[in-house]
Design brief:
- The protein is of the alpha/beta class.
- About 30% of the residues lie in helices and about 20% in strands.
- It has a nine-stranded mixed β-sheet with strand order 1-2-3-5-4-6-7-8-9, with helices on both faces.
Length: about 325
């Protein structure tokens, strides 16, 4: 697919039409306060992986509603002191995978925490193990319309809360340095990263790659690819509910979390990305509040973005922060 979105000079100026609800901050502070009424109860069980350079721990902690959420903590083998911490969130449909997967960040000498995404982990990769015990109103198959009838019920309220608690759980391990915490992820993981960047005030850096869940008003009308298309298919059946749906989504739009971002940021986008169109990524990047921000462009790439090239770019970039 050739370039289909706005020209680059317009991308650099693009702003979302999404308007933050007046009670956006109260909604999220109240949500997190409710979650913190449950004991975090972070447990780290060592896993025998046969790996000699990385130690792996099977993690369980209390997320939204006190529900158990899984994760992996990977540490350089034999670590004895607090390490810079990378907390990673995964893409749509994926889970935390298997303990021997995803060894890059531990191989750089950092602690690496990967959060499982509740209810997901069955579409690709090594799977996941976290249920979503909360029901919701009728929804098109997938996750984008689960509980979309109201912000209090929406699926990503639970996921973003899990993500904040994941940072807290990872920081509770004695070999992690809470003062040098980085959040990152790709696609859905990038969207979760943007949300965490707006909800956790003391991160040292964030790196959202080709982030999903940004600029909903544009994304839902520009691309017909899934997962955004799930919303259109829901509205195709539930006629006349567009305004209600966009109101719910406004509480979860990355552009509003970005406006509250307090850490240096490295974004990325593929200019041929039809899954998370570049204008939606630029909407979040242009709203990012911290002045130390960079976006890497991959001119001829779709949703794969920079792939291993961008992983190398992140490794170089993070040397300045953690």
């Amino acid at each position: 697919m050739a370039l289909f979105d706005l020209p680059l000079d317009e991308l650099r100026e693009h702003r979302s039409e999404s308007v933050a609800p007046d009670d956006f901050d109260d909604f999220w502070s109240g949500t997190l306060q409710e979650a913190r009424e449950h004991d975090l109860d972070a447990r780290f069980e060592p896993v025998d992986t046969g790996l000699s350079t990385v130690d792996v721990y099977d993690v369980t902690f209390a997320g939204f509603g006190g529900h158990p959420v899984k994760g992996w903590l990977r540490l350089p083998a034999g670590s004895s002191g607090p390490l810079p911490l990378v907390v990673e969130f995964v893409g749509y449909g994926g889970g935390r995978g298997l303990p021997h997967e995803n060894l890059l960040w531990a191989s750089t000498g950092r602690a690496h925490f990967t959060m499982d995404t509740r209810g997901q982990g069955s579409a690709w990769g090594g799977g996941g193990g976290t249920a979503d015990p909360v029901g919701g109103a009728p929804a098109y198959p997938g996750f984008m319309t689960r509980g979309i009838d109201a912000p209090e019920n929406y699926y990503y309220r639970r996921v973003f809360t899990d993500a904040v608690r994941a940072v807290e759980a990872a920081r509770s391990h004695p070999l992690t340095d809470a003062t040098r915490t980085v959040a990152l992820g790709s696609s859905q993981g990038g969207g979760i990263t943007v949300a965490v960047g707006g909800l956790v005030p003391d991160l040292v850096a964030v790196a959202p790659d080709v982030p999903f869940l940004c600029d909903f008003p544009r994304a839902t009308t520009l691309t017909d690819r899934h997962p955004y298309r799930e919303i259109g298919l829901f509205l195709k059946t539930h006629r006349g509910r567009s305004a209600d749906v966009q109101r719910t989504l406004s509480y979860f739009d990355g552009v509003h979390f970005a406006a509250r971002g307090r850490a240096p940021a490295l974004f990325s986008t593929g200019l041929e990305d039809q899954t998370c169109p570049p204008s939606t990524v630029f909407a979040a990047f242009n709203s990012w509040a911290h002045e130390d921000k960079t976006i890497e462009l991959y001119d001829y790439n779709d949703h794969e973005g920079g792939g291993p090239y961008h992983e190398a770019a992140k490794v170089r970039w993070l040397r300045s922060y953690a």
